[in-house]
Please model this.
Amino acid sequence: MNSLFVFCELDEGKPVDVSLELLTKGRSLANTLGCRLEAVVLGSGIEGIEKELYPYGTDVVHLADDPVLEHYRTMPYTSVIVGLFRQEQPQIALMGATTTGRDLGPRVSSALHSGLTADCTGLEIGDHYVKKTDTTYKNLLYQIRPAFGGNIIATIINPDHRPQMATVREGVMKKEIVNRNFRGELKRINVSEFIRPEDLAVEIIERHMEARRVDIKAAQIIVSGGYGMGSKENFNMLYELASVLGGEVAASRAAVDAGFAGHERQVGQTGVTVRPKLYIACGISGQIQHTAGMSQSGKIIAINNDAMAPINSMADYVINGDVADIIPKLIKHYKANAR
Model:
């Protein structure tokens, strides 16, 4: 049976987290399908990168190492991936819903006439029965994502075209090493076989790298605020509480839109997906647009004055009351009991 492919994106020569998360999920899906898990990685001077991918259960790594691939450019990357997929005929192809993946995925799917489901939050294998034709499609990729502004969860299938393609949001799946000693097969891609002169029409003259912003994805403790915090000034309490707990501050979209916090701190469907050990939601109602980004937190504490707030139903602990009264008390307590 044709393989499941994952495009492994690099950042400064290292695989990005979402690619490793997709390899972890891809290994599980490939086991269900009884097929191989294969990775494709493009770049320059990346010899040995396969050793970082094998431990996730990667059976084959397709390596394209060439100076023209040093930095991401749409056309050469597209030509290499499309050429490889036409040769290998994967049944499933996955990419991270990053800036690169959101540009590359549609290009590849359009060239292959395969279709693409963007920004998935779940992937499963299942069957689909069509009553009109009395046909059962076996082992389809269920591509699960929020739809209609996050008000419903849609399951999308593609029974007629291959590969079944999806981009997946960072952080919604676990990153887990299968076997540190696992060694798959390395296949080198002949880049000149796929890249055409017109693919190199765009030349990178100069690159400017912005300083890295706040990265809340790695935080084990997150203190998050919503519109119910009332003001940007009130958000200062959250920074103080997070500092005492050794955590990071996040925000709902409503709080970001109101100017209480920067977009880099936004958790939810249009922000970042996080999996901290502890998530403290302050003044957050808990609409699906937000909970889609934090529902898999280890423990959830909700602090708000609405006993019927949706987030209360998913929280492990609920504190009903005014955040302006409760948060200072928490800060005082933790400061007094800090070790």
About this structure: Residues 131 and 137 are 11 Å apart (CA to CA).
